[in-house]
Amino acid sequence: MAFVHLVAFWIAYKQNKALIGDSGITPARHVLNKAQERGRSKRNRRLQWRQEQLKSKQGNNGQESFPKPIQSTKSLFPWLRKFSLSSLQTRLRQFFRLRQFFLGWLDTHVPWFVHLREIWWDRSDARDRPLPTLLWLASPKDRTHGLNRWLDGIAVLGMILSLTILAFGSANVPMIFGLWLCQRSLLSVGGPWYGYGWEPQLAELSFHAMFLVPFLSAIHPHGPTIGMSPLVQWTVQWYLFRIMMGAGLIKLRAGDVKWKNLTTMNYFYQTQPVPNPLTRYFHWMPPLWHKCETVMNHFVELVAPWLLLLPPPGLFRMGPAALATLVFWRRIVGLLQMVFQCILISSGSLSFLNWLTMVPAILCLDDAFLAPWFGPKTRQAVALAAVTAPPAPLARRLVSVAFVTLIVQLSIPVVRNLCSQKQIMNGSFDPLRLVNTYGAFGVVEEERHELIISACNGLDWDDWREYQFPAKPGNIYQSPKFISPYHYRLDWQMWIASSMRRVDKSPWIYVFLLKLLERDPQVLQLLEYDPFANDTEAPKYIRIEKYKYQFHKASSTASSTPTEKAGDITNRKGNSLGESKRKHQASQPYWDRELVGRFYPRQGIATIESLKEEIAKAGLPTD
User: Fold this and answer.
1) What angle do CA 292, 298, 303 make, to 5 degrees?
2) What residues form DSSP beta bridges with 170?
3) N or C: less crowded end of the chain, CB within 10 Å?
4) pLDDT tens across 497-530, in order?
5) Residue 146: pLDDT above 80?
6) Contact yes or no for 231/400 (Cβ under 8 A)
7) What is the chain's alpha carbon radius of gyration, rounded to the nearest angstrom?
8) Is 479 helix (H, G, I), strand (E, B) or coil?
9) DSSP letter string, 202-255
10) By the 8 A CB rule, do 187 and 199 touch?
11) How many angstroms separate the CA atoms of 237 and 98, rounded?
């Protein structure tokens, strides 16, 4: 887990300034400003309500009375009101009235509590979910023009904590909480760049890990002497169960018939977000092989996950034979999930998603199975700790029970979603996004479309130069790279935008194009290179064309050339495509591509002035 966090924070350090920094494509300060406005509005409404309640009490001859509880969806315990036992409902009603009275007293008599409550609870996103982020500690001046330092600081702090855990092989609650808070700080303000399912998945895993490690312990190379709670360990297995079942069920309910007739894998490799050098060979496997792949995918995601619900050893007393059977099947499901993720890593570049999904599967493997991977000193130390470790303190056991109870209750809407025919994927149902629902690739396209951005400086109308991305296909002679677990967020967003069919579905593109014309140095660092780097004239005009891409299959003749259909511009002086053609005249192209049409603008070309008009029309914040 520390390794995955290290990768995530390294990605943040390298890319966040250009994406959500002071002059980024979608600056984080706009998210913070809107959240601050919502927080002030909620605080003012609440204080006004308190004053009305106080006047009502004074008009009632000064008799003390508890105010009725607010029916708020922001309560941390909305599930408590759903119990059917009348006596329990009465006591819970009394509890909420007492809680509301206590909060009202704090709002009235403790000013700093009002301020803290506004910052960490009332300030929320458009879905009324709190935005816990360390950026609230920044001064108003820094939030306006100094967020780059804070974004870098959060990423560096996360990397330091990750490296410390990796170096010593153990952690405690403050360290894991630090990882969770740093990651949530970026997730809260990340906008579309942090809208992928693995971001809340990483945050949820960190939240679970806080209850697996000791609260405070000396960092020791052999880890703590108190073992993990079997109850908490089971919740991690439940977390992996929800991930796999969500991914499997969405494939059957999303309406893509290819998952049912077993033809999905005929198209998946060629159309997935970011291929790697092996993806092409997976794509060229025979149809029968692809059918077997689809069947195995359904088995791993829909059948095998039920074994994840088996209890960990130590949760119940059982005989040697039953224990051996339990350990065997837990090893099988753990290894199956890990092998499945390794296959996905070898066939494409899905960021650190697959690496992250392997982490909870490791808990299905017992110490006896993992022992050969460690040296003799470590094995002896672990064996001695297992024999001499004292029982968990009562406080730790109570915390574990409370944590499991919370997870079970927060899982109720998640289970309802999994059982629903209108299942959503990568969503959350509690305000802090502690327990979420997941899913991936419910619909697989049959054709790969790429958005190709090109610009011209106006001196030569035939000199349209294409911008090349580090991972996104563009240059047909350029083969993909092995980048997993690294993640190029801009490349992914370009792939998502290509499936939206309209640019207004991805309004951030307007700002991105504007910064390309302005030659913003931080944004240009997200690209493979700047095609106008050696020119004194900046580009004046820009456009986006949509192309259909497919893997080029070498023919029997050595002089085969890429497919260039009518409408393609092949004579572009100085662009990467032309350079690659001259450089690789005797080599085979990696892709074939065919022009589909203009993506933006539909007619004409875009300039700095027209893009600013589009940004204002889309209602995007401007500096």
Assistant:
1) 125
2) none
3) C
4) 998 888 989 999 999 999 999 999 999 999 998 9
5) yes
6) yes
7) 28
8) coil
9) HHHHHHHHTTTS-SS----TT--SSPPPHHHHHHHHHHHHHHHHHHHHHHHHS-
10) yes
11) 37
